[in-house]
Amino acid sequence: SGWYKGYVIKNKERKVSKRVFIPEYLTWSSSCLLIYFIITSAEMPLVKEVTTTLREWGSIWKQLYVSSKKERFSQVQRLMWDLMEWRSQLLSGTLPSDEFKELKQKVTSKIDYGNKILELDVVVRDADGNILDPERASVISLFRAHEDATAKITERIKEEQSNVQLDHSGVSARIQSSPTHSLYVFVRNFVCRIGEDSELFMSLYDPIKQTNISENYLVRWGDKGLPKDIEMLNSLKVVFTDLGNKDLGREKIYLICQIVRVGRMDLKDTNHKKCTMGLRRPFGVAVMDISDIIKGKTECLWVTMKALVGDIVQIRKEYPHLVDRSTVVARKLGFPEIIMPGDIRNDIYLTLHSGDFDKYNKTTQKNVEVIMLVCDEEGKVNSICLGAGDRPVNEYRSVIYYQIKQPRWMETFKVAIPLEEMPRIHLRFMFRHRSSQECKFSSFSVSCSHEVHGALAVVGDGLQDEKRNSVELLNNILEVLSRNDVGDTFQHIQDIVSSLLRTINRTVITMGREHALISRVVACMTAILSQMDDRHYSRYIETFSGTTDLVDFLMETFLLFKDLIGKHVYPSDWVTMIMVQNRVFLQAINTYADTMNHKFLDNNSFEVQLWNNYFHLAVAFITQESLQLQHFSPTKRSKILAKYGDMRRLIGFAIRDMWYKLGKNKICFIPGMVGPILEMTLIPEEELRRATIPIFFDMMQCEHNHSGNFRKFENEIILKLDHEVEGGGGDERYMDMRAHFVTLVTGLLERLLDYRTVMSDDSRNNRMSCTVNLLNFYKDINREGMYIRYLYKLRDLHLDGENYTEAAYTLLLHSKLLKWSEEQCTLQLDFQTPQSQRQLKESLYDTIISYFDKGKVIFLIICSFSFLAFCPFVYFIYKFLLQNQQAKFYESIMKILRPKPDYFAVGYYGCGFPQFLRNKVFIHRGKEYERREDFQSQLMSQFPSAVRLNITTMPGDDIKNSNMQYIQCFTVQPVLEIPPRLRNKPVPDQIINFYKSNYVQRFQYSRPVRRGKVDPDNEFSMWIERTTFITAYKLPGILRWFETTVSPLENAIETMGQTNEKILTMINQYQCDDALPINPLSMLLNGIVDPAVMGGFAKYEKAFFTEEYMHEHHEDRDKLMRLKDLIAWQIPLLGRGISLHGKRVTDDLRPFHERMEECFKQLKKKVEKEYGVRELPDTDERRSTRPRSMLRSVRQSICSLAGSECGTPTKTHPER
């Protein structure tokens, strides 16, 4: 993310040192304080761009070398050398402003050219060469910038190619060496029998770009076949100047001559007195390809035309016989490539493009004449030049097309106004209908909105030019409306959306992808969508007359988006345009998805095909090539993420949410959506996979609920997975996630099958257990909807059995998922009505309180709701309850005698039980006055084939692995846990007694055991074995029973104690019997001291003896000390065992013993350093003089779990 600059302050000496840090090598310590801030580069943006470009080109340059593309390698090398040289000049900061601008143009041109030949993305820039920010630029300006950039790069490539080709003669060599050129044209004659005056407009024209290069040269020709100005006979000369090398590099250049007849409307009109005269009517055009002439390759023999080198001053000096003072100068439209000192131009060129004057209900159209005047506050100004060589006039009159509703003039003329006069000048346009015989002008007005709508009506079926004009007109309007300085544009955009959006959508649908205007129309559509906000969308949706019309619009829009995403209308290197389009489409898709949720989700109004189109569009969006970041270079990937983020995540999460909202309608999309969802999950994006892979769970469960199996899903996913992976999809990480998916599916299926089995069972307890297993499973995988669904199934089971307390706790879990906000709840249940989260939470609390009341555990209300005192809502709603009723509740506890419930440990052993009960122990909370015999009798009635075990210890593996059912039941005592808020306070005994049987999670069972010789006269010779059980949750809770659990730490303590017990037992056996074989002892000792095992506690050190674990588990401090103690005691035990082994070992096993001793020394050194030294007394009772009671005490320290409270069952320190 960058470098850091900061100060390290050392505590001892308070020395301060200033440094620059790399984040990857920055570590935090309590001994120093780092004060930092991020360093940002002060380089200018252009230098940053050059640096980034050189890095990107550098990697490609190396690949070119490896692939032996020598020519391209050398070409890129030269480009990089140029950029590095220019970068040094930019960094010097010594360039004058004009040289800096020139260098900037060279740098950006070189970068764009290099990106093109390396097939990298187009960089779009503004007029100053700066990279356009898509956040600030409008869609239309971005599109036009892409067009301009592509045209400039293409022209640059042609120049490179023409530099090699333009070497045909000395003339062309001279042309190439000069920066400025001119074209001399001498008009000898004009032979055409018109019969009326005419105007000849000659100009240079680029047929490829369809644009004029120069201004017009105007010759007025008389009806007698001679120039109107007879003095100009044989002197009609013009020089088209300001041409540069880029102009010479154009693929084609034409000299065109447009002929306008000035006179009657129709030449057939013979009544000159009644005819309207002076009308400008189109007559003809002449075209000549002068590409070779202007490039100096040849000279014209029949028409006097010659390419001249230099500007007007130079050619007047060098060609005085051709260019004299009477020669007209026609300047280029635009500035020359090199502007000479003193060459000042303030010309305005106007082009009358086209118009739409459709009268719609009329059969004949108008003959439109456009008149333009240049006016100041005093009136008309003579500043209009219809062409070079003509005198200025005060008005311009257009050519008249006879009864054409959409005339296209394309007439260009110049307005020459001094710079200081421009603020006082405005242009006035008038539109008139002209007829063949008229006594007066018939003028009319044209409104802007009529112009726009009328023009766009022909986009779909009009002529090519009319389409281009219409689209450009709308694009111009949209670009103006996107600006921040034009006031409120809401209604303008709304008008465009309401009247044109669907028309443009349908135009794109009907247009072929090869159509010349397709990219412009799509850009227009994207621009409209980008300027719409939620209000525009909402109002537009309301304009549809009925449901059918709205569905049709949404479906055609989804199909259109999917088609445009699958096959972009823009070149592949227009990445900025493509990403902006994706961002706009994503916003539209999400907005239309909200409309679907509101209008087409209910069963009565559900539209299968519409939802199907949505899902296929969304998957097409997420899988499109332009969003697959893993295929891009690091530079490109970073740029996209910085500007647009990963849009795949956004649409992926939307797909997930939309799927889960389908409810019962999901079956309509199985197996059809299996393939698309699979394709989406194959995208190597971790968060996306986590969000979408669980959809497969839902599909399986949905089909299973519908048909009792999931064969369709199974067949489809096998088929599609084979196809996708064979096509290159998937990776090892995906395989791991799929394996995790299979594990989850297996767990889900186990629980579902158990649930299905017990649903027909008479045992309500079994149904409750399976329901809790399912809701916990859904909670673990973040499936809130399914979790809530099974919460209410459990609630209903509790109410049927009048377990009101447990029903209250069940609803309390739902209430914890809700916020105190007005946000609307998602409808998760069939009986749920639309309401806010706050309203639902209030309602749930009222119900919970009533359940607690019916369950006769009023005090639990106070305990359960005490945490709500910090909620603002409860301060107002439950203030009365907490302040006025709490004393009453305490009083009822003090005076009313309440029976304490008994707790029973129940073990279900044997493979005859279902999976959720098999070989597990549960603690049950008995009902009021319920005895163990009654509880056990009811329990056995649920399993009539079960055998009752009369032992309280854990049975052996023979019983656990048998195919029968064994039930163990005995009473356990709850362990009091006083809440922290009541500790060290004077609390009445009645309240303490309440906590002795409520809010409990630990339970104990004690039984007498006999060890050694028992003295019948000494009661203290009897040992007590105590077993402690810990339940997964406190009782009472959402069930009347919970499974007992063993924490990983407690399991480690138990395992370590059993290992020590095993070593000690074997030592005693070998001390008592010299005839025992040595092999069992060898295997036991070597298995522990082997370096690969390291005493078997290495994994415990990594798991429990870390600062992180101790910080997060303060309550385990005593248990950690006990585990360390057991590890320390293992060393003297191993030492005693190895000593005993050395006395018994045979000569052939002596090397084995010596290696074991060496390993033990290393282990002993490590353990005693970490956990201290323990000394073992003489445990050989045949030779020991120590009292047996002392030996037994040591044995308990070495092997027992004293101080720990583990699961089922554990032995504790004896009580005497």
From TrEMBL:
<dbReference type="GO" id="GO:0005737">
    <property type="term" value="C:cytoplasm"/>
</dbReference>
<dbReference type="GO" id="GO:0005886">
    <property type="term" value="C:plasma membrane"/>
</dbReference>
<dbReference type="InterPro" id="IPR043161">
    <property type="entry name" value="DOCK_C_lobe_A"/>
</dbReference>
<comment type="similarity">
    <text>Belongs to the DOCK family.</text>
</comment>
<keyword id="KW-0812">Transmembrane</keyword>
<dbReference type="InterPro" id="IPR027357">
    <property type="entry name" value="DOCKER_dom"/>
</dbReference>
<dbReference type="Pfam" id="PF14429">
    <property type="entry name" value="DOCK-C2"/>
</dbReference>
<dbReference type="InterPro" id="IPR046773">
    <property type="entry name" value="DOCKER_Lobe_C"/>
</dbReference>
<feature type="domain" description="DOCKER">
    <location>
        <begin position="778"/>
        <end position="1176"/>
    </location>
</feature>
<dbReference type="InterPro" id="IPR056372">
    <property type="entry name" value="TPR_DOCK"/>
</dbReference>
<dbReference type="GO" id="GO:0031267">
    <property type="term" value="F:small GTPase binding"/>
</dbReference>
<dbReference type="InterPro" id="IPR026791">
    <property type="entry name" value="DOCK"/>
</dbReference>
<feature type="domain" description="C2 DOCK-type">
    <location>
        <begin position="345"/>
        <end position="508"/>
    </location>
</feature>
<dbReference type="Pfam" id="PF20422">
    <property type="entry name" value="DHR-2_Lobe_B"/>
</dbReference>
<keyword id="KW-0344">Guanine-nucleotide releasing factor</keyword>
<dbReference type="Pfam" id="PF06920">
    <property type="entry name" value="DHR-2_Lobe_A"/>
</dbReference>
<dbReference type="InterPro" id="IPR035892">
    <property type="entry name" value="C2_domain_sf"/>
</dbReference>
<feature type="transmembrane region" description="Helical">
    <location>
        <begin position="857"/>
        <end position="878"/>
    </location>
</feature>
<keyword id="KW-0472">Membrane</keyword>
<feature type="transmembrane region" description="Helical">
    <location>
        <begin position="20"/>
        <end position="39"/>
    </location>
</feature>
<protein>
    <recommendedName>
        <fullName>Dedicator of cytokinesis 2</fullName>
    </recommendedName>
</protein>
<dbReference type="InterPro" id="IPR032376">
    <property type="entry name" value="DOCK_N"/>
</dbReference>
<dbReference type="InterPro" id="IPR046769">
    <property type="entry name" value="DOCKER_Lobe_A"/>
</dbReference>
<keyword id="KW-1133">Transmembrane helix</keyword>
<dbReference type="Pfam" id="PF23554">
    <property type="entry name" value="TPR_DOCK"/>
</dbReference>
<dbReference type="Pfam" id="PF20421">
    <property type="entry name" value="DHR-2_Lobe_C"/>
</dbReference>
<dbReference type="GO" id="GO:0016477">
    <property type="term" value="P:cell migration"/>
</dbReference>
<dbReference type="GO" id="GO:0007264">
    <property type="term" value="P:small GTPase-mediated signal transduction"/>
</dbReference>
<dbReference type="GO" id="GO:0007520">
    <property type="term" value="P:myoblast fusion"/>
</dbReference>
<keyword id="KW-0597">Phosphoprotein</keyword>
<dbReference type="InterPro" id="IPR043162">
    <property type="entry name" value="DOCK_C_lobe_C"/>
</dbReference>
<dbReference type="InterPro" id="IPR042455">
    <property type="entry name" value="DOCK_N_sub1"/>
</dbReference>
<dbReference type="InterPro" id="IPR046770">
    <property type="entry name" value="DOCKER_Lobe_B"/>
</dbReference>
<dbReference type="GO" id="GO:0005085">
    <property type="term" value="F:guanyl-nucleotide exchange factor activity"/>
</dbReference>
<keyword id="KW-0963">Cytoplasm</keyword>
<dbReference type="InterPro" id="IPR027007">
    <property type="entry name" value="C2_DOCK-type_domain"/>
</dbReference>
<dbReference type="Pfam" id="PF16172">
    <property type="entry name" value="DOCK_N"/>
</dbReference>
